[in-house]
Amino acid sequence: MNTKIITNADKINAKQLKRATEIITKLQNELREYIERGHGPFLAAVYSGDKLIAKCANTVVMDDCSNHHAEINVIRMAQSELKTYDLAPKNLDLYITAEPCMMCIGAIMWSGIKNVYYGVPSKVVEKITGFDEGFKPNWLKEFQKRGINVYGNIETELGEDVLKQYVESKHIVYKPSR
Ligand SMILES: [Zn+2]
């Protein structure tokens, strides 16, 4: 059974949420293939309505770069594709297989993305994988202040399965040594 949707929006737009569920389901299934090709276990996509603008998985290990999270990769790709540092006038949606970490929250905030939809919440990601998602006090409220709608916990069960599979198949849980 799926967890209740988390949002900072005044109301849930049923049509948007239905589309988000379809897109995130598709991303979770594609993510299994990305993992097999050496990507980290997170996938993100930027859409304009039904049109895909950019899609990218986490490439931290293959790029030897700690900030190459899926969200940062896909925002960079979308801005390059659309030739702008400000996506706001384009009214774009960001779909992510899991809740953004503290670094990606900053990246999303400066990008001009208008709507964020995510799958597995950070607490569950941390519990399953051991990744550190950082600290994010009141991020939903901070996004709300800036006119960014967030909808989370979409198709969490499927997302949890993908993460469990990542860990069980002994893929690397990359993080700084402490
Ligand atoms: Zn991140």
Describe the structure in your own words.
The protein has 178 residues and is of the alpha/beta class. 44% of the residues lie in helices and 20% in strands. It has helices at 14-36, 60-63, 70-82, 102-111, 122-129, 139-145, 156-168, and strands at 6-7, 40-48, 51-58, 93-98, 115-120, 149-152. Strands 1-6-5-4-2-3 form a 6-stranded mixed beta sheet. α4 (102-111) links the parallel β4 (93-98) and β5. α1 packs parallel to α7 (156-168), α3 (70-82) runs parallel beside α4 and α5 packs parallel to α7. The longest helix is centred in the first third of the chain and has 23 residues, at 14-36. The protein starts with 5 loop residues before the first strand and ends in a 10-residue tail after the last helix. Zinc ion binds at residues 69, 71, 100-101, 103-104.
